[in-house]
Amino acid sequence: MKLWKPVSLLMALVISALPSMPAWAETYEVKLLNRNETGPYPFEPEFLKIKPGDKVTFKLVTTGHAPASIEAMMPAGAKPFRTKINQGITVEFTEKGLYGIKCIPHFSMGSVMILQVGDEASLDDLKISSDVPPISQKRFKDIIARAKAAGAK
Questions:
Q1: All structural domains of the chain
Q2: How confident is the prediction along the chain (153 residues), in pLDDT tens digits per residue?
Q3: Backbone angles phi, psi at 82, to 5 degrees
Q4: How many CA atoms does the CB half-sphere of 114 hold within 13 Å?
Q5: Distance (Å, rounded) from C-alpha 81 to C-alpha 69?
Q6: How far is the C-alpha of 35 from the C-alpha of 137, rounded, in Å?
Q7: What are the start-end ranges of the E strands in 1-153?
Q8: Fewer CB within 10 A of the end CB, N or C, for the chain?
Q9: For residues 77 and 95, what is the distance between their CA atoms, to the nearest angstrom?
């Protein structure tokens, strides 16, 4: 009977901690491609909405890509990420808001995507940095239009 008291106490502690634990996070996959119906060097999907604490795996379908955050297009407090050529990455997103993401070597050719974390931000809130190359600025606007047409806000 002496064993049951410590085990019962431990179980009570574990059960009492459950409501304060975060919900199970999801992991999503985003592919970096050379081409699809939207044009050259797209991310697929080009727009993704996730919950805070979810993770995104950036998977290189072909060589020559390097995903990275665009620091001027991230929520305050968010941690930037950057990879090397031919290196995928899994990133946990905890800060709510909109993120601009690029492929470093193909940024000037329009290789960008938008990630929305949580419900607070609207696609209309995305501020496209003036440092973004013109082709990528256009792609961001096209992504917003397609996402809105599909029901995103």
A1: 23-149 (2.60.40.420)
A2: 455 555 555 555 455 544 444 568 899 999 999 999 999 999 999 999 999 999 999 999 999 999 999 999 999 999 999 999 999 999 999 999 999 999 999 999 999 999 999 999 999 999 999 999 999 999 999 999 999 999 998
A3: -155, 140
A4: 29
A5: 5
A6: 18
A7: 27-32, 35-36, 39-40, 43-44, 47-50, 55-60, 67-69, 89-92, 97-103, 112-117
A8: N
A9: 7
Burial class (CB in 10 A: 0-12, 13-18, 19+), 79: exposed
Q: Report how far residue 59's alpha carbon sits from residue 31's, in angstroms, rounded to the nearest whole number.
A: 5
Q: Which residues touch 88 (CB under 8 Å, ≥6 apart)? A: 57, 58, 59, 60, 67
Say if strands 112-117 and 47-50 run parallel, antiparallel, or are unpaired: parallel
Determine contact, residues 69/101, Cβ cutoff 8 Å: yes
Residue 148 host element (H or E): helix 134-149
**pTM, to two decimals:** 0.84
